[in-house]
Amino acid sequence: MAAILAYQQPESKHKTGRIKVKKMLSVTLAGCMAASALMMSAGAANIPNAKDMSVKQLAYMDIVHAPAALKDDILSAREKIIYGNQAWAVDGALSIIRKDGSVEELPEFTDLYPGWEIPEHKPAIVTSDAANYSGRSTIGHTGNVYLTRASSTVNSKSFYSFTGDDREVGTYAITLPGTSYNLGFYDENSYRDKGWIPSLSKGEGGKITSQEGVRYSVHASVPSTSAIGYARMKVVTPASDGNINFWDVEDR
User: What pLDDT, in 10s, does the model give residues 98-109?
Assistant: First the structure.
């Protein structure tokens, strides 16, 4: 009996040791989990809150290394700036024509916003009326267009679409519901604008040098502080002599 007891006692010590080791492992594991939770909590606390940042602060953040939770806010802020008070063009495609016929070249999008991308928008046409669509030989349109306020999230609806033929195509407002309007030429092939011109006056507009076979559409809106309503818009090509001052005198 004594021999049996002498044999069982060491075994009991081993069991006790294993229990102590298990307890130590459990404590260590719990400590690691707690530390990890604290690190995650600290990391979450370090992520800036978009509500506490200005549009400019968000827009100019490094989107590549920004927290995933902020990337949509960064893109939204950039779109507000892109369709803000600064005119721009892509590859020199778009220019302003003033009332006196003078042409004003626009800065390049890539120079103004290096590393940014022009927002992609699916086209939205005001009406399916065939008169608002033209082929290569019949570019030109005059009609009333209801202008809504500019939005950074919804592209204003296009009121005219045409296929390019390497000619210049101009658009301007004959009448306005307020004092100014915004104008954009949209490339239906890439789903992106070729240029943006804010705060144009009545009788002023923009012209684009169209490319053969490329489908374009024209959209307009009014600034956020302007009255909404109908404008009389005109789309024209240069006269037979190629004169770039192709606004009708009575429309100025």
Answer: 988 889 999 999
Distances (CA, A) of 203 to 39, 141, 174: 61, 15, 6
Q: Residue 97: pLDDT above 60?
A: yes
The answer to whether the CB of 186 falls within 8 A of the CB of 216 is: yes
d(CA 244, CA 9): 107
d(CA 92, CA 107): 8
43: left (phi over 0), alpha (psi -120 to 50) or beta: alpha
Q: Give φ, ψ of 197 to 5 degrees.
A: -130, 110
Tell me the C-alpha distance between 76 and 151, whole Å: 11
Residue 23 tokens, joined:
């307890």
What is the tens place of the pLDDT at every residue in 214-229? Answer: 999 999 999 888 889 9
The single residue listed with the structure tokens 């606390």 is 45
Q: Which long-range contacts (CB under 8 A, 24 or more apart) does 104-107 make?
A: 106/195, 106/197
Q: What is the CB neighbour count within 10 angstroms for residue 15?
A: 10
Strand, coil or helix: 108:
strand
